[in-house]
Recover the amino acids of this structure.
């Protein structure tokens, strides 16, 4: 079995990250009515608003070519509103890069975000040190009050569109403050 190195970079330059999905592509999909894209736009809009108060602290996960595996929504939000030029990242590689992680508790930001890291990988049985990760999440104190699963995002976006027919999604829309709780 090939060894996967999970490498920690607490301040990785944004301009060196290659998104798997760009904001332009997401907006095109949303304007065609793609339900998944519409749900993702709720998250992007919420993150853009949250950047006024909080920096991105949850690590993005990148592959060896610096393409996002996890974190495109945060990357899109940062492109719209931020002075933040670095983000924490975990890079999966077959070569050791930066600080190689043997135990996830070595990553300081995980314990800063939550007292008891609830780390979820996908596939759920995945050992991120031996198999590629497709998804990563942690229980973050700062967002625990905000349900952001796809079903919730789909529901609030559907109700938003009912109240705002004919809306055109663009970068300005993503920056506009929306109280998603009123569409619950």
């Amino acid at each position: 079995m090939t060894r996967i190195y999970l490498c920690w970079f607490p301040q990785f330059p944004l301009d060196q990250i290659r998104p798997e999905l760009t904001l332009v592509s997401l907006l095109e999909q949303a304007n065609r009515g793609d339900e998944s894209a519409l749900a993702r736009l709720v998250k992007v809009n919420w993150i853009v608003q949250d950047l006024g108060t909080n920096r991105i602290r949850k690590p993005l996960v990148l592959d060896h070519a610096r393409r996002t595996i996890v974190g495109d929504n945060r990357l899109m939000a940062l492109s719209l509103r931020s002075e933040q030029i670095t983000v924490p990242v975990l890079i999966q590689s077959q070569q050791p890069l930066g600080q190689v992680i043997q135990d996830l508790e070595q990553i300081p930001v995980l314990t800063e975000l939550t007292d008891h890291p609830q780390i979820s990988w996908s596939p759920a049985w995945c050992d991120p040190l031996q198999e590629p990760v497709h998804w990563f999440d942690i229980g973050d104190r700062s967002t625990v009050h905000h349900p952001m699963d796809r079903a919730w995002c789909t529901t609030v976006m559907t109700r938003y569109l009912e109240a705002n027919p004919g809306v055109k999604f663009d970068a300005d829309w993503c920056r506009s403050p929306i109280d998603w709780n009123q569409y619950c």
Summary: The chain has one domain: 5-183. Strands lie at 5-13, 60-62, 68-70, 86-93, 99-100, 120-122, 135-137.
